[in-house]
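ugh ok fine here u go
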Amino acid sequence: MKVQILNLPLLLTREEIYPFLNLGLAPGPLPANLDKLVDTYLRHVTRLAKPQGLIRVCSIRSLTPNRVELADANLVIAGTPAVAHFTACERVTLLAATLGPGIDGFLAELQQTSGAADAFIFNGIASAAAEHTTEILDGLAVREIRRNAYYPTARFSPGYGDWPLESQQQFIESIRGEKIGLAVTSHHLLQPVKSVTAVIGWSRVPLERSYEQPQEKPCQGTLTCRDCPLKEKCLSKTSR
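structure:
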């Protein structure tokens, strides 16, 4: 299937931002200076971000206990836990989302000219915006999967579980990431920084869209606490 290119909206709320600033879901009124910084950098992120996404549906050609090969893309999903995620699937949807390079440039300048608090808050808001953009793309993919009478798995990305981060280059090539300015560094990291790649499986078997979760998950994201990049800060805060 051909790659779909999408321009995505960015309507970020403070409730989405707070967990990325280690403030929990509902911190109540913020100190005036912090509230001003959040307001200022939310405006900057909204102005600078150019959210775009890519979607491509691929059939699964072969599946073994530790390897998934796609029929029409040069991408291999490798590793036993990663493959287990897709064992009941017949297809997958590849996703890529980015906020564009403007965010990276502004953050680099901020780190040189302002205090650590400013850079931390801007970076946190930008991370929330990247997650927001990915959720929109996820919703579009899930709707298509369900419309075709399949069940969507949770998202899974290179670098999660034992799927090597080195697969990021294959992923970007398979989804034509250059169409929205995506590239991969020599350390297998995405550029621009506020970018995400992920796979969603098309399962014939009903399943939960996540791994086992704690009873009181402290946010509404689709990532589980185990796989979330904020887990150490977030869980240590909520366990106090």
